[in-house]
Amino acid sequence: MTHTPLLPVIVFLGSSVLLVSLFQRMGLGSILGYLAAGILIGPQMSGLITDVKYTQSLSEFGVVFLLFLIGLELQPKKLWSLRKTLLGFGGLQILFGSIVFAFVAYLFGLSGAASAVVGFALSLSSTAFSLQSLSEKKVLNTEFGRASFAILLMQDVVAIPALAIIPSLGLNSASTASVQWGAFLFAFIGFAIFSRTLLGPFLRQVASLRSRELFTGVTLLIVMGVSYLMAHVGLSMALGAFLAGVFLSESEYRHELEADLEPFKGLLMGLFFVSVGMAVNLSLILERPLTILALAVLYMGLKGLVIFGVGRIMQLPREASRRLSSYLVQGGEFAFVIFGVGQSAKVISLEWTQTLTLIITLSMILSPFIILMDEKIQSIWMKKRPPQKYDHIEDSDNKIIIAGFGRFGQIFGRMLRSQGIGFTAIDHDTEQIELLRRFNFKVYYGDASRKEILEAAGAKKAQYFVIAVDDMMTATQIAEMVRQEYPHLKIYARARNRQHVFELMALDVEHIRRETLDSSLILTGDLLVDLGIPAERARQMVERFRRHDELMLQEQFKVRNDANLYLDVSRLGMDQLAQVLKEDAQKSYVDSGSERKTPESEH
């Protein structure tokens, strides 16, 4: 009895697990781990797997699922709301990048069609790699992080029609003649109508059976069915999967579909990158190591300059533009797909496909080091750069000072501005201030924990002081300084948690609100109503909880330094709350029962 059919699976999973975990620990990302696994187990190194074509054909399903999930995310309404950012950052980056790289490819002797395909493919960046890096470094919500997301999203959108167009540029006449455009149009309109009318009720019926396996099977059927239709009319399966995702993007079961396909997508995308690694022509590196490395450096240098230029055109600061280019400087996974399609259609030769695949792979390998180098430059530059001067705060008679103008402080600002009430807002985040000024908010750059800043803001003449900063320690320092220097100011403070409340109470701050209390209580009230509790009764329960919690805060504050007493008071408070709510429920039941009695029944 032979077990050889299992060997490729064991080799694939074993090498992937070992190398992906190793590369992630090194901070190089999972994609490079899969590529390294492919190189290691491929025919050019260990030779554990020799049937590269079979692996590549199987890995195409990873691209199919990836494009379906991308389609699910690309809701038409969402894309329309982001059109300016997408066309600005994403459109310019793709346009300029494609032109530059197409020109360079033409200089290297490629045909016009081949240069266009290569130029477009090289303009793309890795969505998986870049988003992972931006998230790990916690810079996705910065100005350059949002610009990066816009560029990556636009690249994903534009790459789909490119996969359908590229075969028509080739010498393989069968690729163009086999496309049945009439059948494609019929299938497109038919699925659009089906997704708008019958698919929703059908998915509801499937979901009502509460069978996770069945719902997953239906999801796979939708993806593979539409992909097969597109392949049957002469287009790519990937295009079909993408269209299916777009049609289902506004479905109420969108998140359920995503969750069901995520494991398949991750595994098959890993197989795709392993197959790319297996196809890497290592002999090219051995034959022309300096040439290949020089081409990779030239590619990353040109791409970095293009992205930096786009950032500056879109009025990003120089520093943000540099960081934007450092995160997007690598080649993208879609380039591998495009090179494969281009080679199949005889647009690009096998030699150039192998060379370009190797360059993209090297750019992915070098990219983490570029990001690390950028961070090192950033830290050195921040140390050498003289501290930015705080803004000169204009003299005003505003009665209100707001320290911190993020998501919490802006609510104060918007309400006050709507009533024509003046205020002075101070924040220490230059990017946030720059963004707010675009919305005509006058926010000053400064450190609200420094006396001279508050002096300039008019703290002596003001009457109210709002502490809306996010950092607990900074908020406490500001409250302490205001209490000492400006005791006449009435403080309204944002608190992160109970411990923060105690610190502020110790400074005699009276008006304190925990940032999540009100929203969580309101949402709890909504849940109680959905559970069948009358709305008025739910409102009373929420209000009773709020009052009890405020009293508990006072009691806990008194014993906050004694851990045992604090636990005793807390347990007692929870028992009291449960008893009070139980008594209220019984009272409410009796009252409602007496109201239902008729005069005759009372006699």
Task: Write up what this structure looks like.
The structure is a single chain. By secondary structure, the chain is mainly α. Helices cover 71% and strands 4% of the residues. It has helices at 7-25, 30-41, 52-73, 76-81, 83-107, 112-123, 127-136, 143-165, 173-177, 181-197, 199-208, 212-232, 237-247, 254-279, 282-287, 289-313, 318-327, 333-344, 350-384, 409-418, 430-438, 451-456, 472-485, 498-506, 517-530, 535-558, 563-596, 599-602; strands at residues 400-403, 424-427, 443-445, 464-467, 490-495, 511-514. The chain has a 6-stranded parallel sheet with strand order 3-2-1-4-5-6, with helices on both faces. α20 links the parallel β1 and β2. The protein is globular, with a radius of gyration of 31 Å.
How would you describe this structure in keywords?
4% strand; disordered C terminus; six-stranded parallel sheet; globular; 28 helices; 603 residues; mainly alpha
Query: What ranges have pLDDT less than 50 throughout 5 or more consecutive residues?
Result: 172-177, 594-603
- Terminal residue distance: 90 Å
Percent of sequence in beta strands: under 5%
By DSSP, the count of extended strands is 6
Structural class by helix and strand composition = mainly alpha
- Average pLDDT works out at 77
Strand order of the largest sheet: 3-2-1-4-5-6
Largest sheet: 6 strands, parallel
Number of helices: 28
What's the Cα radius of gyration?
31 Å
Task: Using the alpha-carbon principal axes, give the shape.
Answer: globular
Helical proportion, percent range: over 70%
